[in-house]
Amino acid sequence: MLPITLAAGLLACSPSSDEMSAEAELAAQIAPQGPVAEQAVEIIVSDLWLRPHLGGRTVTAAYFQAELAEGDADLLLSARIEGAERVELHGHFMDDAGVMQMREVGARLIEDDAPLAFVPGGLHLMVFGLETVSEGQTVEGVLVFQNGGDIPVTFNVQASAPL
Ligand SMILES: [Cu+2]
């Protein structure tokens, strides 16, 4: 799949403002992550939100945080959102010209000491073909984990991250 160039104002896909380990962070976002041992896990998902579509667009982004309450590792394999044609796990990377791009990434590792953060400027769910939604609505979805299975979630449609 070809990387998608970030168009200004397209989405919430702005580079992280955290300068310190920004490059390492970006590299980690796109690095493939291997299988994890089969085990019982309990995953707590929070801060679920989906950005309203910007004028006329059919693509938007959704975010969440996830942590392991039980077990020590799992993989987020994919996500689905009711009514969307497809949902991709996206990360950002810097191309050779120093331009921030985003593209589909593989499964994402979650560990007991390393929660998953899908946030603006970082990892995000890219949501294609969802009927236009606006602030105040909710959208149902599923996060699919290797060990945790299908976890039903509800995204609040809002223009910025929950406080
Ligand atoms: Cu994206």
Model description:
The protein is mainly beta. It is globular. The chain has one helix at about 20-30; strands at about 5, 40-50, 60-70, 75-80, 85-95, 100-105, 110, 115-120, 125-130, 140-145, 150-155. It contains one helix and eleven strands. It has a single domain (about 5-30, about 40-155), classed as PCu(A)C copper chaperone (Immunoglobulin-like). Strands 1, 2, 3, 4, 5, 6, 7, 8, 9, 10 and 11 form an eleven-stranded mixed β-sheet that branches. Helix content is about 5%, strand content about 45%. Copper (II) ion binds next to strand 9. The site of copper (II) ion has 5 residues, from strand 9.
Measured as a percent range, the helix fraction is under 10%
Low-confidence regions: 5-12
**Using only CA atoms, what is the Rg?**
15 Å
Mean pLDDT: 88
Number of helices: 1
Ligands bound to this protein structure: copper (II) ion
Q: By CATH's scheme, which homologous superfamily applies?
A: PCu(A)C copper chaperone
* Beta-strand content estimate: over 45%
Quick one: biggest sheet?
A: 11 strands, mixed
CATH architecture classification name: Sandwich
State the domain count.
1
Global morphology: globular
Q: Nutshell version of this structure?
A:
The chain is mostly beta strands. The protein contains one helix and eleven strands. The longest helix is centred in the first third of the chain and has 9 residues.
